[in-house]
Design a protein that fits this description.
Largest sheet: 3 strands, mixed
Number of strands: 3
CATH class: Alpha Beta
Oligomer: single chain
Shape: elongated
Helix content: 40-55%
CATH architecture: 2-Layer Sandwich
Strand content: 5-15%
Structural class: mainly alpha
Distance between the termini: 58 Å
CATH topology: Potassium Channel Kv1.1, Chain A
Strand order of the largest sheet: 2-1-3
CATH superfamily: Potassium Channel Kv1.1, Chain A
Length: 152
């Protein structure tokens, strides 16, 4: 049986996870290697609901390595379903994956955002992400002139 580690979220909730799950986070792996994981590992930048999702992702991905890019279809399908969440949760997952240094989760979440943008006009992107266009018509014309290549 593998060692268990306690992870403590920013809202003081504890999660007990197996080492094989915990070390998918390079941040946690380094804490364990440095002997800093004897008690609960505090994760002040991750809330309990996001940490629960991160742990769910890591449990599902135990054994699938970055080198093994031939991920089975079931895992791809699971990832697709896992990413069907609201934007706020998606952004929190990106921040958590970055903070915890979980490359595969960071890649998946960022790709999801990239897919939300792909093929959209600036106006559609603004609508998707609730961004207000604060350019005056003159400023917008200047940006288009300076970056004409991007609008071709």
């Amino acid at each position: 049986m593998s060692r268990m580690f306690k992870l403590k979220s920013s809202d003081d909730e504890s999660f007990e996870v197996e080492e094989v799950v915990a070390v998918q986070s390079l941040t946690i792996k380094h804490l364990i290697e440095d002997g800093c994981a004897n008690n609960a590992i505090p994760l002040p930048n991750v809330t309990s609901n996001i940490l629960a999702m991160v742990i769910e992702y890591c449990k599902k991905h135990v054994g699938s390595s970055e080198e093994n890019k031939m991920v089975d279809e079931d895992l791809k399908t699971w990832d697709t379903e896992f990413m069907k969440t609201d934007q706020a949760t998606l952004y929190d997952l990106i921040l958590a994956a970055n903070y915890l240094n979980i490359k595969n989760l960071l890649d998946l979440t960022c790709q999801t955002v990239a897919d939300m943008i792909k093929g959209k006009t600036p106006e559609e992107i603004r609508k998707t992400f609730n961004i207000v266009n604060d350019f005056t018509p003159e400023e917008e014309a200047e940006v288009r002139r300076e970056n004409q290549w991007a609008f071709e």
